[in-house]
Amino acid sequence: MAARKGASGDQNVFPISDAVGSPVTANELDRRFRALLEALPTAVYTTDAEGRLTYYNDAAVELWGHRPELGSAWCGSWKLFWPDGTPMAHDRSPMTIALRENRTVRGMEALAERPDGTRVAFIPYPTPLHDEAGQLIGAVNMLVDISERQRAEEQQALLIRELHHRVRNTLATVQAIMGSTARTSDTIEQFKDALIGRIGALAKTHRLLTDEAGAVTFCDILHNELDAFDDGSDNRITLTGPDVPLTAQLAVSLGMAVHELTTNAAKYGSLSAFGGKIDVTWSMTIEATRRRLDFLWIESGGPAVSSPQRQGFGSRLLEAVLPGQIQAAANVEYRPEGLQMRCSVPMPLE
Q1: How many CA atoms lie within 13 A of 11 on its CB side?
Q2: d(CA 75, CA 113)
Q3: Residue 286: inside a domain, yes or no?
Q4: Within a domain: residue 267?
Q5: pLDDT at 69
Q6: What is the pLDDT at residue 192?
Q7: Domain tally for the chain?
Q8: Average pLDDT over residues 294-317
Q9: 253-275 b/e with 16+ CB inside 10 Å = b?
């Protein structure tokens, strides 16, 4: 098919037609183009060669936080900043560079401050516009909001730091468990059994933290250790207290403490005898500048109890390690009717 001359007189230019073949006028083309820009979920605006606004869509208004007057503003952003928060000079802005140097600008990021003081991170894509003679007549800019991406990246970095912190703490805890277990074990077999039990308790607490996405309560820690001994008869295990969410560090430390209390009760205390009982009550004290978890562990119905001849890992954990790890104050009493422990744990302020 031979090419026809277009309105400009150039060869090989075909008039734009609609679906039925009728030529589309310049006004109709402009209307469709603006409708397309309005439908975009991304902020788009245009300027003339001097940088004055000639058009913007509603997405740009949402990003800027206001509706600037056409022709009276260089760009719609109230104020511009570099990603580190330092002010961006007017002659360094991406659109300025695009118009001054007559080139596209890519690979930059910036912060736009709205009139209300909030800021939004974005990536600009300023591109010069030319007439048929190649003369610069303005520019179009697309502003891609990357606030959600930045928040996701910050959250990911936070989670990675938390993971590194937990790994370091876990390795330190394992090292302490191995050292203390070795000092209080008389045989290799005794060392192996005790170490397996304690490492298993640590793993159970970490699994609980993972399964519950970090939302672990003190009651969860108690159930994690004591449910295996609750036969449902005569209230052998009684747990009474409110929901008290724990941080990861508190969950690990208190999980180890409850494991040692449970293991001791199963070997020598109330859980080693038929009819033995454990009653745990706890409460939360909230004051102006601090919060505190207080709990009481009471054993009864087991064999007669006396103070141990030497301090084992459990005693060291309760009376020395807990104060150092989580600043808890623990008091263990070896009463003839059963072991009792009171513990007061400082809690972070919400």
Answers
A1: 1
A2: 12
A3: yes
A4: yes
A5: 87
A6: 78
A7: 2
A8: 78
A9: bbbbbbbbbbbbbeebbbbeeee
